[in-house]
Amino acid sequence: MALISGQLEVAFGPLTERLDQLVDGASLYKVTVNTSGLRRDAGEVIAGWTQLQTSIAAKRAEAALEHSLAALPPDIYLNSGVWRDVQSALPAAAGASLLAASFAAIPMVVSFARVSTGVLGFIGFSAISWPIFAVGSVAVITASITGLKVLTKAKDHRRQELKRRLRQQAAKQVFGIGLPAADRCVLNDLQAIVIKAGRTRVRGLS
Amino acid sequence: MSPLLYKIPEVLVAGYQSGQFSLVGAMMKDVTTGQIVGHVQQTGVFGHLMSAGFTGMQNSLTGGFNPLGIVSVIQNHQIKGQLTNVQGSLALMQNLQIGTLAVSGVGLGVAAIGFAVMIKRLNAISGHLNTLESKIDLITRERRSDELRAIFTDISSTLNTVDTLQTRKSPQAAGERAQEALAGHAGRLEEVFKDHSNLSKAQSLADGDLDLLWSLAAAIRVCHEAGIRALFTIDELATAQALAKSQAERLLQLSQTLSPDALARLAAHTATDPIEAAERRKAILPKAQTLVSGLRATVASVASQSALSGSLLAKNTSGRAYLDAVEAEEEEPLLFLPA
To answer: Residue B32 and residue A71: Cβ atoms within 8 Å?
Structure first.
């Protein structure tokens, strides 16, 4: 659990940089009049990032579990209490009650192979609604009538505001910042997926 | 050397290092079968050696109380790095988590420290809680401060009673009363802990909240340690076995509602902008992880005491005799009771 959290923490910086670049490269029209295109582009960036992080986390967890299983003696008594130790090699279900929503959203049986390579439509990203980015565009259009300098200033201000909102949205989607403790987010969903895939793997041995 | 406790056999130390045996709390278990092969017990020598081994680190780490803010900056790899230079049975400590040290004071077997040290630890926790008052929610601050102050006063009073058990002509009744009182104090602290750790109702997390949980966990642990030791002193091992089991289950329930990520998420709620929120989450996460892992390790430590009590009962050995054997040890930091 801690490793997945750390992984997303490290990868989050590049994600927000990519979103900033998206706003910097967007046309004036996209930034001021019709932000739906920007919203769609940002959604694709976050979705792609989420898929990559899911794949990395799944491969890492699978490798760690296989390492633990390989270290077990061959004459292991399958029904012994040692299976509790084996399952401790899985990400400990710390605060599992707080992952209940994520567990409920994930298919009952999910394997590491599917998690590593497949597109997962149920990861937290789609569960959170996007805010409307159109607020402020009228003021910018009005400003354009009064002069280029004012328009430029308003446009820059607008870009900064959009960057701020995108970062805020990304933090909400990835870490659940701003949401109640038990609400779904990418981190919670990833942790739940890895636990379920691990259980599927271990059950396959007994 | 006492016939009851032994220097930890080198074959066990080697087996632990190779993965043949694992240390769960103070229980040495065979990885293949899951069976307990014996119990590890720290002695009075342990604290001195560990302090000497951790050069440059907090000397109180192995026996006293350290606030969460101090503990969480000491990385686990620093402990392992220090321990590679330590020989013999202390090699069992190579996988020790920093949170275990700080919350349960290692917690290998029955508390080997005297009650004077426990009182000192309790006073350190109480003093630290007083510093947190300004960081806790204003609305509940006064009520909570009075309540905690009363609980700590009661615990201190009971510890003073337990400290006299060995000198009393008839320690039985006093020991039972003291143990029951300590269980009651622990229960009151657990209720305060539950109030503050209910994440489903929390809107945010202040700086002092994690530290409060940490301090409460340490105080609960002092009550458990003292209570179990009191029962060993008056030879109520069956009660000690049942009580430790019950305590471990309650601690497990307390810890299972906590998630480091959820705690960090709530802490970020107080930020005013997304950059600050991300930074705040990053800053609080190590503390939250230390708290939760410390609690989990404490569960194993307490459960070990139940298993130890059971082993002594099976061997028809009194708790008093066990404590005498531990206290008599002047050379080995860790001893072994075969299952």
So the answer is: no
